[in-house]
Amino acid sequence: MIKKAQQMIVFNALTKQQSFTKAAQLLDISRTQVSKQIQQLEERLGVQLVQRTTRSFALTEEGQRFAVHCENIASEINDAESELLEVSDTMQGLLRVGIAQSFARHHIAPFISEFHEKYPQLDLELSLFDHRVDLIAEQLDLWIGMTDSPPEGFVARHLADCHFVLAASPDYLARNGVPYTPEDLSDHNCITYYSRERKDNVWSFTKATTDDQENTNVQLKVKGNFRVDSADAILDATLTGNGVGYLATYLLEKEFSEGKLVRLLPDWTLTQHMPLYAVYPRYKFLPKKVHAFIEFVRHHIGEPVYWDNVLR
User: Fold this and answer.
1) pLDDT at 214 (0 to 100)
2) 305 or 206, which is more confident?
3) How far from the centroid of its chain's Cα atoms is residue 166's Cα?
4) Which of 153, 167, 251, 300 sits at 20 to 30 Å (Cα–Cα) from 264?
5) Domains and CATH numbers, the chain
6) What are phi and psi of 52, to 5 degrees?
7) pTM for this one?
8) Considering only CA atoms, which of 122, 176, 68 is closest in space to residue 290?
């Protein structure tokens, strides 16, 4: 099939240029190659397409009919490339993006109108979920997700590291007391993230020492009466006084400054972090619409990410 198309393109160039030499120059091949391609085409079809002598060139009746089809094929190829380049250059068409649900709600959805103002002819289709995704099966162009093990066979571009903080509401602390060490959490109702892929019921802490000794590291299994597979639901339950929340900092805005939450164990660092990646299929040339959305996300989250200001 490829050889057939190649021969038809050469024949179309010959009929347009009315010269083997000029056809060769147009296609950037040798005159001998043009002649060979036409000869092979005629042999394959069993029909003489060109009458030629050293000084004259003319299409046979069969060659004239065949030339119409070859012109159509060449036009289709040129139109397909032009349409693709036009869409790519003007950012038209559909972009399908999967995004971690809570992250999208806080840091993507509020700014979608800004993206559309910049690319008004680009349609955006967002799928929000927290599970590990199969980009090919779900027909996604891009996945913005949090994972410590990006899927193999895809490009995974690191965007940021999401950190965590321990917090509880003033009401909960008034009823249950304040934990001052990680070990104190054994006496508290701890709200945990729990899904088919992650069970975050083991919390890790580290504390820097004042001398040259190694840092103090603590890892403990916590328990509580509420497990959920939504980061936003953990924040909501923490705000309403259900227990102690191990909260991603990207969820927080003014909860500490407005007194809605109290940061716990401020001398300890929570060692869990969750990398944020832009994951997409391997391309020889990355589609401009995919690149544009990645840069849109990077612009809004900043470097370093702005939401970690709640820790300062």
Assistant:
1) 76
2) 206
3) 30
4) 300
5) 2-90 (1.10.10.10), 93-159+275-305 (3.40.190.10), 164-272 (3.40.190.290)
6) -140, 145
7) 0.69
8) 122
